[in-house]
């Protein structure tokens, strides 16, 4: 089975992990881990950045009177919780992974050190880059773009709830049209809410393609990494 990419960065929003009864749904973690296992078995090197929106978002907290920086640090800590849950799901099915955090917490996980992360990837370990960029006022989408650049990933796979980028919400409009391909500037100018503009700009400046696809369908991530056309490429 031929894989189009050798090293990828997978960005998964925190909301993906949200369950009815849990902020972090164990069954969803198990599903995501088993999907990624197929890539590891096919010798694809996988770095993951998880969001924290299922637990906390700094901007939303600011709207309710909290200091933005405090909210952002809480948000970054939320991503560490998500990352630990995903690592646990990987461990259950025999996938070797490491949580590497942008905020140092040596009793919980490794610090994110670029060269160490590269070694983990080369040894076939999944790297879960936690705590975003380590800086307030950023998003985990931007952290995903940064980690993808510094880890020499060929592409950012952005997992969403729909199977690509549409001209309007496909859940509301049956005549919504899916784009196969968009430019970075299209995304910025049309204000398409797929990744924030900082993340898009970083990908554009570094010629890093983004592939938007639906993660929660069995086999989708593997087909996407094999190069099958399903979602939307931003290039
Ligand atoms: N965050 C931050 N710096 C970063 C990444 C994340 O301050 O580099 C904070 C920010 O408050 C953000 C929260 O962590 O709202 C959770 O991340 P995000 O909203 O990107 O998660 P997602 O929407 O992907 O679940």
In short:
The protein is α/β, with parallel strands linked by helices. The protein is 37% helix and 19% strand.
What does this protein look like?
With 235 residues, the chain is an alpha/beta fold. Helix content is 37%, strand content 19%. The chain is built from eight helices and eleven strands. It has a nine-stranded mixed beta sheet, sandwiched between helices. The longest helix has 25 residues, at 68-92. The protein is globular and about 50 Å long. The mean pLDDT is 96.
Q: How many DSSP H or I helices?
A: 8
Q: What coarse outline follows from CA principal-axis ratios?
A: globular
Mean pLDDT: 96
Low-confidence runs of at least 5 consecutive residues: none
Q: Please provide the ordered H/E string of secondary-structure elements.
A: EHEHHEEHEHEEEEHHEHE
- Measured between the Cα atoms of the first and last residue, the distance is 25 Å
Helix-strand makeup class: alpha/beta
How much of the polypeptide forms β-strand, as a percent range? 15-25%
How is this fold's topology laid out?
Layout lengths: L6 E6 L13 H16 L3 E6 L7 H6 L4 H25 L4 E5 L8 E2 L2 H9 L3 E5 L9 H11 L4 E6 L4 E2 L11 E2 L1 E2 L1 H6 L7 H9 L4 E5 L5 H6 L6 E3 L1
Parallel strand pairs: 1-2, 1-6, 2-5, 3-4, 3-5, 6-10, 9-11
Antiparallel strand pairs: 7-8, 10-11
Helix pairs in contact: 1-3, 5-7
The protein binds uridine-5'-diphosphate.
Uridine-5'-diphosphate binds next to helix 2, helix 3 and helix 5.
């Amino acid at each position: 089975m031929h894989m189009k990419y050798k090293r990828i960065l997978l960005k998964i929003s925190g909301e993906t992990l949200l369950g009815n009864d849990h902020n972090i749904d164990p069954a969803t973690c198990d599903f995501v881990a088993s999907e990624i296992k197929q890539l590891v078995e096919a010798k694809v090197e996988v770095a993951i950045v998880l969001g924290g929106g299922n637990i906390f978002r700094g901007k939303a907290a600011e709207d309710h009177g909290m200091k933005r920086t405090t909210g952002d640090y809480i948000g970054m800590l939320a991503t560490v919780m998500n990352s630990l849950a995903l690592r646990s799901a990987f461990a259950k099915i025999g996938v070797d992974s490491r949580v590497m955090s942008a905020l140092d917490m040596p009793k919980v996980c490794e610090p994110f050190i670029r060269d160490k992360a590269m070694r983990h990837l080369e040894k076939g370990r999944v790297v879960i880059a936690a705590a975003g960029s380590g800086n307030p006022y950023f998003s985990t989408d931007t952290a995903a773009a940064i980690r993808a650049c510094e880890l020499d990933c060929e592409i950012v796979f952005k997992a969403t709830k729909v199977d690509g980028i549409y001209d309007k919400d496909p859940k509301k409009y049956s005549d919504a049209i899916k784009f196969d391909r968009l430019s970075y500037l299209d995304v910025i100018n049309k204000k398409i809410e797929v990744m924030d503009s900082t993340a898009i700009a970083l990908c554009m400046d570094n010629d890093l393609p983004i592939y938007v696809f639906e993660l929660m369908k069995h086999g989708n991530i593997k087909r996407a990494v094999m190069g099958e056309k399903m979602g939307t490429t931003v290039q």
